[in-house]
Amino acid sequence: MLNTVPYTRDLVLVGGGHAHALVLRKWGMDPLPGARLTVINPGPTAPYTGMLPGHIAGHYSRDTLEIDLVRLARFAGARLILSHATGIDRKAGVVHVEGRGPVAYDVASIDIGITARMDIIGFAEHAVGAKPLDVYAQTWRVFLETVQSGTKPAKIVVIGGGVAGCELAMAMAFALRNSGATPQVTVIEAGPEISGVGPQARSKLHIAMTDLGITILPNAQITEIRAGEVVIAGHPPVEAALCVGAAGAFPHGWIAQTDLPLHEGFILTDPELRVQGDATLFAVGDCAHMPFAPRPKAGVFAVRAAPVLHHNLRAALTGGPLKPFRPQKSYLKLISLGGKSAMAEKYGFAPSAPLLWQWKDRIDRAFMAKLDQLPVMETSALPKVVAGGVADDAQSVPLCGGCGAKVGGAVLGRAIGTGTAPLHADVIAGPGDDAAILRGPNGSFQVLSTDHLRAFIEDPVQMTCIAAVHALGDVWAMGAAPQVALSTIILPRMSAGLQERTLREINDAARAVFEVAGATIVGGHTTMGAELTIGFTVTGIRPDMPITVAGAIAGDVLLLTRPIGSGVILAAHMAGKAPARIVARTLAMMEQPQHIAAGILKNAHAMTDVTGFGLAGHVQAICAASGVQAEIWRDKVPVYEGARELSDAGVFSSLLAANTADALTTGLPDPLLHDPQTAGGLLAALPRDAAETALEALRDQGCEGHIIGALSAGSGPIRVS
């Protein structure tokens, strides 16, 4: 049944800060009908501030520290754009995004945090800011490995003697000492003493830092940062294999290039968290300045602001009344002391003990659990009375998107068959190969193929790129040069304004992919339906006979240009079980064109692209058409990161059962060999020497290639060894 509530408004969240993460959770539990939600963030995860010192000290793993924005966005029904916002045009109502077209909004919110990058000579080249947290955390992990390997000395300089600088200095010193190194950590403070805390807390911090061998240099003015040292006025240079900036909060530079009202680079807001003078734009967290209630930059205020922001965003979209945000005047500081001990400070009191670290740990884990252990949304049960066979045929897993939604190969074969109608005089090959082959002018050949994908992500731009690459795969697999394309688009029901926005994004993305491939979009057809579906009909040309699946010979080897496992990863993503980085990396590879690899393999004996019927199914297609038998070397088959673990955990695509039944194999069982692929790699059969030459050429061009098996005379099931 068609969705009767059309999308009419676009809500855009710029940044994946703590407030926006909490808004995503609340939105998923109670979405606003008619509102389409978009999140723009540079990475698939966002580190949680409260657990960063514990991660640096070695108490928490990377996964424990990070908020999974991919899972949160999926739960909220939001599209996630993994890129940097670079500007806002409030008059046009668009957010400019690096690497893609502008994103339109009716209501938007900004929660991008701050940076600790400092305006010191040499900082950009030889130091890292403590914020953004993910950049610093990655830099630290690499540095710790180099110290452990003996490549670099354990000498660190921290710029800034506030709470953040001291906390990170203690965490790094503890981790280095715990790894067997002798740390030399120096904290450089421009003021006379540790700042941001009272006398009692300051005294205890001094003691804790001294116990860890940390040196504090007060009243120090840094003049330059060089490779391996920090230059201080009137003081000998301080050696630094790692220099970390933690002195104060600095706004992101692109904000200053906008017409937003600012206070020292931070966005001015009113009590309702709206940008001053703008009823459609909100700002929250460290990037915002609240003149009605000035507060220090601390994550606690973003967390407390989240419920108010959620209410006011919905109110702005529906015309309802807004609520004011009333931040608390004082708050409890819980400061990690390197090891599993912490200090609490409030109202001038500053007790410290391991018990306080345990309390902090419980608070932090509870916050992360709220964002990680998302409520399970109930699925519709079957009606009490159904037609015969419904209960037996009901899907045991949700219907997948992409190639996981395809009809099984056996069903297609029985329904379509070889056909009895005579072929047109210009048709050389019809059903059964990647594309139909037609006679072209002057003795040339034209190939024709069509493909469409049921959307498995909410972003129409990335979905379009993947669908275009997927459709082009059939033409590339036949060694043809892509020529023209027709688009077939089904949009979810939406207002005319959102239709225009969405179609512009889809058409721009498709045009970019086909231009890279050397083809042109010449038209298409668009309708509205229950969900987003994107497809393309593509033609290609080749001066000599196109490559088919029927040309392989005994002695050929099989070469694959892309990993397998996208089906199980997409199925896990739909179920909220796939880690953010795994999903992001897989999607990023799926949208990469394969024209270079196709050109290198254009003289293969046989070739196909690995899609819905899985690797085994496509190997079997080559064997059946060529009259040979295949052996697949399982350990040589490339697999997407995380796919093996998900498969072993019992995750599978809705098409897996049909693929397993259709593609017969003997030897080592492996569900991933039958996993349906979307925008999968090219699978070529060619002589061993030619394959080795192709591998070298692929690597020279920055492409991937793997020899995964061999063909021999005979027939029968694929042998897996």
Give the gist of this structure.
With 721 residues, the protein is an alpha/beta fold.
What descriptive keywords fit this protein?
721 residues; alpha/beta; FAD/NAD(P)-binding domain; 4 domains; seven-stranded mixed β-sheet; 22 helices; globular
Quickly name the level 1 CATH class of the largest domain.
Answer: Alpha Beta
The number of domains is: 4
What class do helices, strands and sheet pairing give? alpha/beta
Any idea of the CATH topology of the largest domain? FAD/NAD(P)-binding domain
Give the oligomeric state.
single chain
Overall mean pLDDT score?
A: 92
User: What amount of the residues lies in strands?
Assistant: 15-25%
Largest sheet: 7 strands, mixed
**Using DSSP, what is the number of strands?**
37
CATH superfamily of the largest domain: FAD/NAD(P)-binding domain
- The first-to-last residue Cα distance is 47 Å
Low-confidence stretches: none
Q: Any idea what the radius of gyration is?
A: 29 Å
The backbone outline, from C-alpha atoms, is globular
Number of H- or I-type helical stretches = 22
| Helix fraction bin | 25-40%
What CATH architecture of the largest domain would you give? 3-Layer(bba) Sandwich
Strand line-up in the sheet with most strands: 32-35-31-36-33-37-34
